[in-house]
Specification:
It is built from 19 helices and ten strands. By secondary structure, it is an alpha+beta fold. Strands 1, 2, 3 and 4 form a four-stranded antiparallel sheet that branches. It has a two-stranded antiparallel ribbon with strand order 5-6. A two-stranded antiparallel sheet has the order 7-8.
């Protein structure tokens, strides 16, 4: 007498075949619940779709070795949502499961059409029965796929050894679909069939165990099966529709080529006949009072935590989210293309915590992530909170792969997030411009750095007019360096200018800028933590000489901000009239005598001011030269004439008129350089780059002109040296 299982189906008894490869952990209970309700298909069931598995090389985070694996592209709303990691050994089973879902969905729709066309009550009852049966099995396979996806994306399967992973849900599905066990529990499996729960269904050595393949639900083509060692052979008409075709184009997009024709030709009549005369293979899984599980397909909320493209890329480069979770979040926020909506960042947050933690308090984590996204907290505060309260991993570190620019303290990942969050937060308010005095922004910037307020004011001023955050931050370093070069120049010129102003009777005052440069960490910034408040770069009370710039980048023009209480010095020295009535442009060469109508005391003060000017010039000459060499990019003196040119320029910018500067240049340089000297002087005159003193805007012009002159100077000297050597050789 043939033995049957609890479902009434015949079983294969006896010992397992020789050479069977066993599971490390035999199946002792079923994880996939039995579904007894018919599916309900709507727009949500089609909202998540998959593309065929892609084979790809990845790096093992433990060994550093490369191995071959698969990833399943996930499509949501016709866009790539991310991937599902799939071990290579499960590729065939995944495709078979996917095929069964397509197959039963197609059969369910065909029987639904038959129900609409039925004329008699009997025809309607038969079509409805077969539709409900196929619909129940469709829901069963969709539940199985959902559970497999949840296991894969959470890395909760056994993945200790690459290439030998164990996905429990797919193992179970393979065994139960082969043995037709979806309508029974694990405890109802007959003892003589226990061998199927112990054998590894993924190993080719075990194929003989799963040769008796049984399908039902209106698909009667596989009712006669025979077991052939090493392969599955299925007899009967229409067998090509039981196994997934090798050509994925024939079925993967949802429609199996030739299925409807096969249904009309034989399957419909065969299924109706079997329904009227039940045989040993008939299965009744549908129950009229049963309900579908609350979550039975991937389109329902919450959706599985699919791996984003960035998450996949970071992980498969040999990184471990258990060891470097913060670097993962840094990577997804930093890497191009940038995220544009907070949901993209939340996807990576979900995936990370789904993988590395159990039962995390996600609402608290979401709140923290949103604050970071909208610039209401700093990156450092975000990291500290995650590590202390949510990511309590034994070996996890909070370091990232960020490489900071030592020449630009403003262009950092933390600052970028704050400023981008400021822009995103403003986008939530419709039709309102960016607020340069946004309280949240300035409070967070103060926590990032309580110094360099004038630089932050300039940075914010550029962002509120629509410039990209990344571009502004890259330009901030050169901007700050130039601003501080001008400050140093003004510092060393201040005593000289003060003496000149005394001689002229003018009250021009040098305008201060913040101390330090783009790498300065001193606490002497005039906008210290106590004074770090919202400040407009265009306010009249802003005392930063370079607080507003017209452009960005290394060649940004530095513009002095207008200060209603501080008079700017003239670009040209005012002409003075000597006692003889002759005019001169050389303030430093004034007579020591009193001006007409002045007293002897005034003459003495003028004489003292002149001596003070000369002493200041001597004391600060070396500092001015160093400043100009740095600003003019002339650190390396190639020829002696370069030093002469710099010294003459220093003289010009301290207390020399253009006429006197021109005379000295013509006398100190040989005739070979006469044309270059004259061209240089003509450009200076045309641009009205005249001193003293030189303001920040004029200095940029002077720097450009001087570099061109030095280039010609070096070129001529190099040609002369080459001619001299050629002559020596001859």
């Amino acid at each position: 007498m043939t033995k049957r299982n609890a479902a009434g189906n015949p079983t294969q008894s006896g010992k397992r075949p020789a050479g069977t490869v066993l599971l490390a952990r035999p199946i002792t209970s079923f994880r996939i619940p039995a579904v007894r309700a018919e599916c309900i298909l709507d727009e949500t069931t089609e909202s998540v779709t998959y593309r065929p598995p892609e084979e790809i090389d990845v790096i093992d985070s433990d060994t550093g070795e490369t191995f071959l694996t698969c990833r399943v592209p996930v499509i949501v709303g016709r866009k790539l949502k991310g991937y599902i990691p799939l071990p290579m050994r499960y590729r065939a089973v995944w495709l078979q499961l996917s095929y069964y879902i397509v197959l039963f969905r197609g059969m369910w729709r065909l029987w639904a059409q038959e129900l609409q066309k039925a004329k008699s009550r009997e025809e309607r009852n038969n079509a409805a029965t077969l539709r409900r049966t196929t619909g129940t099995l469709l829901a069963q396979h969709m539940v199985s796929r959902l559970l497999a996806v949840l296991e894969l994306v959470s890395r909760s399967h056994n993945a200790e050894q690459s290439g030998e992973e164990r996905v429990n849900i797919l193992d179970e599905w393979k065994i139960r679909v082969a043995r037709d066990w979806f309508n029974i529990t694990c405890q109802e499996v007959p003892e003589e069939d226990a061998k199927y729960l112990k054998a590894d269904p993924m190993r080719p050595e075990n194929r003989a165990l799963y040769g008796e393949l049984v399908l039902c639900g209106g698909i009667p083509a596989v009712f006669n099966c025979r077991n052939v060692e090493g392969d599955w052979k299925i007899e009967g008409e229409g067998t090509t529709f039981i196994e997934a075709p090798d050509d994925l184009e024939e079925w993967f997009d949802g429609d199996i080529v030739g299925l409807e024709q096969m249904f009309q030709d034989s399957w419909r009549d065969d299924a109706l006949e079997k329904l009227m005369t039940p045989d040993k293979y008939r299965q009744v899984q549908y129950h009229p009072k049963a309900v579908l599980p609350a979550r039975w397909h991937e389109g329902q909320r919450p959706q599985p935590c699919f791996w984003s493209v960035k998450y996949w890329n970071w992980t498969t480069q040999g990184n471990s989210p258990w060891d470097k979770p913060i670097d993962l979040l840094y990577y997804v926020l930093k890497e191009d293309p940038p995220y544009t909506v907070v949901e993209e960042f939340m996807q990576d947050i979900d995936t990370l915590f789904n993988v590395v933690t159990e039962a995390p308090v996600m609402e608290d984590i979401y709140t923290l992530a949103r604050k970071l996204w909208f610039g209401a907290t700093t990156w450092g505060e975000f990291v500290d909170d995650l590590m202390q309260n949510h990511l309590r991993l034994r070996h996890a570190v909070s370091t990232t792969s960020e490489e900071k620019d030592p020449e630009n303290v403003f262009d950092t990942f933390e600052v970028r997030l704050v400023l981008e969050g400021f822009v995103r937060r403003n986008e939530l308010t419709v039709h309102l411009p960016l607020n340069e005095r946004d309280d949240v922004l300035w409070k967070v910037l103060k926590r990032v750095s309580g110094k360099h307020q004038s630089a932050w004011s300039w940075i914010v001023s550029q962002i509120v007019v629509g410039k990209k955050v990344t571009e502004v931050l890259k330009a901030a370093g050169p901007w700050w360096t130039n601003a501080n070069i001008m400050k140093r120049i003004k510092k060393v010129q201040a005593p000289i200018d003060g003496a000149h102003n005394d001689n002229r009777g003018a009250g021009a005052t040098a305008v201060e800028v913040d101390d330090g440069d783009a790498t300065d960490d001193d606490d002497d910034d005039d906008a210290g933590a106590a004074a770090f408040e919202p400040q407009s770069a265009t306010d009249e009370d802003n005392n930063d000489a370079a607080g507003a710039a017209s452009g960005s980048g290394p060649n940004t023009e530095i513009q002095e901000e207008h200060n209603a209480h501080v008079a700017k010095p003239d670009h040209r020295p005012k002409k003075r009239t000597k006692r003889t009535g002759q005019s001169t442009d050389d303030i430093g060469m004034e007579d020591d005598d009193a001006m007409p109508g002045s007293s002897g005391e005034q003459a003495q003060l003028n004489s003292q001011a002149y001596r003070t000017s000369q002493e200041a010039h001597t004391n600060h000459l070396s500092e001015i030269q160093a400043t100009f060499r740095m600003a003019l990019n002339q650190d390396e003196i190639v020829i002696p004439l370069q030093r002469v040119a710099i010294d003459q320029l220093v003289e010009y910018t301290t207390h020399c008129s253009l006429e006197r500067y021109a005379a000295k240049m013509k006398s100190d340089f040989s005739p070979e350089h006469a044309e270059s000297v004259q061209t240089y002087l003509d450009v200076l005159e045309d641009l009205q780059v005249m001193g003293p003193p030189i303001d920040s805007e004029a200095f940029d012009d002077l720097r450009s002109v001087f570099r061109e002159f030095v280039t010609r100077l070096v070129s001529i000297e190099a040609r002369k040296e080459a001619e001299r050597r050629q002559k020596d050789l001859l």
